[in-house]
Structure formats: C-alpha cells, structure tokens
Amino acid sequence: MKNADVRSIEDLFTRGQLAQLAYLKQLILNVKDHNIRDSLLLAFSSTITKINRTYHPSTTRGDNAGDTAAFRYYRFRIAKAQ
C-alpha cells in the first residue's frame, strides 16, 4: 500500500482484535438460520470500519461520529491513541 502507515490489511488491527474478530466470525458462521447468519455477517462487516486502528473519532461531533483514515486522508493512516 503506497503511502500507507501499514504494510498489510492485518496491520490495521491489533493482534488481540484479530483473534477476537476471528472468534466472533466463527461463532457467526456456526449460526444455522440463514437469515440470522447473514444479518450478523452484515453487522460484523459494518463494525470493521469503527474498530480498526485507522478510526479517527470526531472531536466535535462525539466518539461515534468519526471516520476511518481511508476516507479522510485517502490512505491508511493509523490514528493516534486516545
């Protein structure tokens, strides 16, 4: 990734996050009901944008109104620790 703070997609998450995400996805994939499983996978995929290391919380609109660096800076930029 040219001009990025990370070398691979895996670097967008901490090791702990990757382990927890893998476990959560496995639990979701084990759900037998097709509609519930697909709904959970949709929620899982939309959560990824807020829990990665590039998420920048808004200083004026509240913690849940931030965005990821890819949309703000047009590159993968790791957010400063809060």
Structure description:
The structure is a single chain. The chain has 82 residues and is mainly alpha-helical. The protein is 45% helix and 5% strand. It has 3 helices and 2 strands. It has a two-stranded antiparallel sheet with strand order 1-2. Helix 1 (15-29) runs antiparallel to helix 2. The longest helix is centred in the middle third of the chain and has 18 residues, at 34-51. The chain is globular.
Arrangement of strands in the largest sheet: 1-2
Largest sheet, described in full?
2 strands, antiparallel
**Share in β-strands:** under 5%
SS-based class: mainly alpha
* Rg, alpha carbons: 15 Å
Global mean pLDDT: 76
Runs with pLDDT <50, length 5+?
none
Shape call: globular
User: What does the oligomeric state look like here?
Assistant: single chain
Short characterization:
The protein contains three helices and two strands. By secondary structure, it is mainly α. The longest helix has 18 residues, at 34-51.
Please describe the structure with a list of short key phrases separated by commas or semicolons.
two-stranded antiparallel sheet; 45% helix; 82 residues; globular; mainly alpha; single chain
Task: Describe the SSE topology.
Blueprint: H1 15-29, H2 34-51, E1 55-56, E2 67-68, H3 69-72
Antiparallel strand pairs: 1-2
